[in-house]
Write a structure and sequence with these properties.
This protein has helices at about 5-15, 20-30, 35-40, 50-60, 75, 80-85, 115-125, 135-145; strands at about 60-65, 90-95, 100-105, 125-130. The chain contains eight helices and four strands, in the order H-H-H-H-E-H-H-E-E-H-E-H. Helix 2 crosses helix 3 (about 35-40). Strands 1-4-3-2 form a four-stranded mixed beta sheet, with helices on both faces. The protein has about 190 residues and is α/β, with parallel strands linked by helices.
Amino acid sequence: MAPRIPIGHLLVRSGLVDHDQLIRALAYQQSCGGRLGDALVALQVVSEPEVLSELARQQGVSYIRIGRQCVPPAIVRLVPQKYIRSRRVFPIALGPAERRGTLFVATGEPQNLGLMDEVAFMTGMTVRPVLVGDRDLDEAIERHLGRPQGTLPASDPVVVCTAIGSPRSSLSRTSPRALPRSCWAKP
């Protein structure tokens, strides 16, 4: 297995970041903490989708934007709500029927094999991770499951995706590449 090239070097190699911008972002990361990609976005050197596209390429997974897409409730229910919230994973689609079936799971940590193994164990399915931005993941979880109890003001309605028959429910049984083009980041 080839050694993984650091994301900063990949961004420089791809032309999205120059050496000086990388040095500035590393200094920002050193003083503020966090991830290098977050530092580059905070400094407005690159956009979040550009960083995530490179990260996905580095990790050998797909990057998607869930956006306003509705995932059928039957797919969301494959993983317990408590687990989705605590481990920040979100089931988004079923793949072609294989021996055990494939479940595509959106996460900010597609390299976390332990996490993917846990989802595979609880669902009995083969799990394929896809990378998603943190904010996009949080919004999808809230939109499909509502806000966690105790965080919702009495006057604020819970928004739950129920559009099973709508065109947005096209995520039901497909490969990630067949997801609507608006859902994918530009390579």
